[in-house]
Structures are given as C-alpha cells and as structure tokens.
Design a protein that fits this description.
By secondary structure, this protein is an alpha+beta fold. It contains 2 helices and 13 strands.
C-alpha cells in the first residue's frame, strides 16, 4: 500500500513539473499595437532658372593717352585768361573750358558771309579764341575777305571780322558797327592770326594777336550761341576759306 502511495506521489510531482515548465515558456504579449510611420520621400525642389538681367552698358572710354598739344593749348589759353583777369573785362578765372576741334569753312558768294555755331555752347559771359588762316580761289579783289567770330541770341546778332586788308570790322544785327585798321601783313604769318573775343557784363572786347582792337562795345541779350564766320571775297571756285585751329571757349556764367 505504501508502495502505491509512493508511486502516486512521484507521478503527481512529475505532472506538476511538466506543467510548470510549460508555463515558464509562454512569452508575454507586447502591449499596444505597433504603428509604422511611413518613410518621407524627399522630392528635390526645382532649381529656378537663372534669368539674365540686362545691365546697361556704357560707351567704352578710350584709354587716356598723353596729348601734349591739347595740354599745351589749355595751358596757353588759361594763362591768357589769368593775365587778363586783372582787368575788369574778365570777371573770374573760375569757369568751364571747352576745346573745339579744328575745322575749315569755305564760302563762295562775294560780299556775303556764312556762320557756323558750335554745338552745345551757349553762354552770356564767355571768352572765345581761335587761330585763323585765310585763302581765296583768286587773288583779284579779295582784300575784303575775312574770318571772324560770332555770337547771337533770338533778338541780337554780333559779328566781328578781321579781313585780308588788315581791317577789323564789327556788325550788329547786320548793320556796320565800326572798323579799325591793324596790319595787312598779319595774315602772311604761316602760323595764322589769333582772334580773341570777350563778352562779359554786357560788353565785348576784341583782340587780334593779343592787341585790343575794340573795347567795351555794348552788348544786349543772352545767353548767346557762339561760333565762327567767313566773309567771302569771291564767288569763284571754293570762294574764301578760313582754317580755324586751336579753338577754345571759356564760359563764366
């Protein structure tokens, strides 16, 4: 009897052990249902197309090169302005300098004159200076041919000539204003003749080779267009030609 009790006891122990082993192998459930976050697909942003912006271009400025002739002309002219600033005819050495390119003008109608105004040169008080040479198609009866300087506004017209016969003459609104003899040999100089006109404080002064010819002639109006003129002594061929060089203006407005 005891033998059967022992066998039963061992059987129970074995059965309990198996059950405990089975219980120990059960995995605990994971709390919560896992949520999968979708992967973000990176889409590259489109790169904007470069738009060409038009940049305003400037006219190329030529490389500065020494121009000794132009520098010498300026120095000579400004020296003349300073030397005459001590007189009341030049009100100030403060002003603007305008060089003008050399040029020639021919006119063939005896007894008449042409005029040539400078572009973008307009002033009430100014100095204009130029070297002039004269030539004629014929040598007969051309002693009245002349080269000159002019200034005008819409109401007044002033012209001052130096002629081949050595006379200086000025005209106001077409009328003869007066004349003065200087020297008929001056145009024989191969360097030409220097003409200078000062218009300042309602009067003009005129010089031939730095010698004053007319002084304080009344002037009315302004601002004026400024230029040069040719008085023709013949109607043949090219007529009368004036070569204007070393032209320079000084405005004092």
């Amino acid at each position: 009897m005891q033998k059967y009790q022992m066998i039963l006891t061992l059987f129970v122990i074995v059965i309990v052990g198996v059950n405990l082993q089975s219980c120990g192998s059960i995995q605990q459930p994971i709390q919560g249902t896992p949520t999968f976050t979708p992967a973000i697909t990176l889409t590259p942003s489109p790169i904007p197309t470069a738009t060409a912006t038009l940049i305003s271009t400037k006219t190329p400025i030529p490389t500065a090169t020494p121009n000794l002739a132009a520098t010498q002309q300026y120095e000579d002219f400004f020296s003349w302005v300073k030397n005459n600033s001590d007189e009341s005819f030049v009100s100030s050495v403060n002003g603007k300098y305008y060089p003008v390119d050399d040029y020639s003008k021919s006119f063939a109608k005896i007894g008449y004159y042409s005029r040539e105004n400078f572009d973008n040169l307009n002033a009430t008080n100014f100095i204009i200076q130029a070297n002039v040479k004269i030539a004629n198609q014929t040598t007969e009866n051309v002693f009245k041919s002349a080269c000159g300087l002019v200034f005008e506004d819409q109401f007044s017209d002033y012209i001052i000539f130096f002629s081949l016969d050595g006379n200086t003459n000025y005209r106001i609104n077409g009328g003869d204003g007066g004349s003065k003899y200087i020297d008929s040999a001056l145009f024989q100089n191969p360097e030409g003749v220097k003409l200078t006109l000062i218009v300042n404080k309602n009067a003009f002064n005129f010089y031939v080779n730095d010698k004053m010819v007319f002084s304080q002639i009344p002037v009315y109006g302004g601002p004026f267009n400024i230029g040069t003129s040719v008085l023709s002594g013949t109607s043949e061929g090219f007529g009368t030609r004036c070569d204007f060089t070393k032209i320079a203006a000084w405005t004092m407005d």
